Amino acid sequence: MGLPKDLIRDGFNMSENGGSKMKTSLGPKDIMFPTPVFIVGTYCEDGRANAMNVAWGGICSSNPPCIAISVRRQRCTHVNITYRKAFTISIPSEMYVKEADYFGMMSGNQVDKFKATGLTPVKSEKVDAPYIEEFPMSFQCKVIDSLEIGEHTQFIGEIMDIKVDDEMLNMDGTPDFCAIKPLTLDAASFRYYGVGNLIEKAFSAGKTIIDNK
Ligand SMILES: Cc1cc2nc3c(=O)[nH]c(=O)nc-3n(C[C@H](O)[C@H](O)[C@H](O)COP(=O)(O)O)c2cc1C
User: Fold this and answer.
1) Scanning 1, 121, 131, 174, which has the fewest C-beta atoms within 10 Å of its C-beta?
2) pTM above 0.85, yes or no
């Protein structure tokens, strides 16, 4: 099977750079493996709850704990966040893949997405935005900053609270990743995946290399 014409195979300087594998340059692209599937909850100006699927996001600070999400200017969600200075992120488990995808296909400017999906918006205690009751985990975020990048605005939300279904907690009170079964996205093929098996413990697997030095 031939490679697309715009891909550049990169073998000419292998010895100079010390590498020996053939690599293909994909050029500058908005691809990352994996991206989260965040369902961002907001209120419209008239008080109607809305939700949108966001892949471009992640934790961006530990203290204060913050999440950054990038939202295009034409989204209903963009207007809502700008107006209310708040959003939530609800984490869909695998069983809600249809609803999660729907939230990314339709705009709150045209439809009531909560009516269409039958999911329940719940008013947050800490911020002026709704979270989704049926999803096992949600974050309540207050906007503390924003940055214009191309067609997107990156909103930085300080996490004011995280809610997790009781039955999704480990014995030590941490959220149970395997029980929650969060969806992830392959942003190259636009396919949803579940999470895989435990491979190793973080801040631990690397110890063997430290110890061998
Ligand atoms: C998997 C997936 C990921 C998406 N990620 C983003 C994103 O990170 N930023 C964005 O602006 N739009 C993203 N979208 C598109 C919006 O979710 C979509 O345009 C949605 O209809 C906007 O809803 P709203 O107008 O009600 O805010 C994504 C859509 C899908 C299906």
Assistant:
1) 1
2) yes
By most ligand atoms within 8 Å of CB, the mutation choice from 75, 78, 115 for ligand 1 is 75
Q: Strands 23-25, 86-91: parallel, antiparallel or unpaired by DSSP?
A: unpaired
Q: What is the CATH number of the domain that holds 135?
A: 2.30.110.10
Q: Are 122 and 43 in contact (CB under 8 A)?
A: no
Q: In the chain, what's the furthest Cα-to-Cα distance?
A: 63
101 lines ligand 1 (CB under 6 A): yes
Q: How many domains does the chain have?
A: 1
Range of the domain at 120: 36-190
Written as tens digits, the pLDDT of the chain (213 aa) is 445 555 555 554 455 678 899 999 999 999 999 999 999 999 999 999 999 999 999 999 999 999 999 999 999 999 999 999 999 999 999 999 999 999 999 999 999 999 999 999 999 999 999 999 999 999 999 999 999 999 999 999 999 999 999 999 999 999 999 999 999 999 999 999 999 899 999 999 999 999 987
Q: Is residue 168 part of a domain?
A: yes
Whether residue 185 has its Cβ less than 6 Å from ligand 1: yes
Measured CA to CA, the distance from residue 42 to residue 151 in angstroms comes to 20
